Amino acid sequence: MPNPETVKTLGRALATVSLLFLVSHVKAQLPDAGRLALCAACHGSLGNSQIAAIPSLAGQPRVFLENQLVLIREGLRDIPPMKGILDNVKDPEIIQLATYFSSQTPAKVKGNIDGVKYQRGQDLSRKMLCGTCHLPDYAGRQQIPRLAGQQEVFLLYAMKQFRDHSGPGRDTIMSASLYGLKDNELDDISHFLANFKQD
Description:
The protein is mainly α. Helix content is 56%, strand content 0%. The protein is built from nine helices and no strands. The longest helix has 26 residues, at 4-29. The protein is globular, with a radius of gyration of 21 Å.
């Protein structure tokens, strides 16, 4: 039978090795600190934007983030503030960035809710079956973005872009879905989604 002290020592050594392996594995999965700081400058700490016109990345589906980063890098999505930021960023780093931000917890909504506007937006979203693709809790999935808790100003801007400017990098299903909607209707939907609360 092994000496109890030897068993303890061996156990501590194995635990240390396991911890070192785990730390090195986690570190290898984290994006470059400088790149994260650059993202945080606009998209907020841990991907929760504090700037109305800039989207939050926290909790977005990983595949959606990967796709958008590639589209921006390749110039298929024209976002002037991001010009050059993703130049020469390789696919493995894009996967790291997408994985990191998708794993962050979206911040809780802190806006002032207009009950009438919220209800109109909820009714419109249900009528348009937004929850079919974006899921009933609007958390998104795969290549479909999370809408719940997103910046209201950004949501309105993005929907107007889909409605009015179809082109490379834009989802044609969204363009068709929003076709014919008036600005005030998009405004109501944005208010509802930005402030979404589970029933």
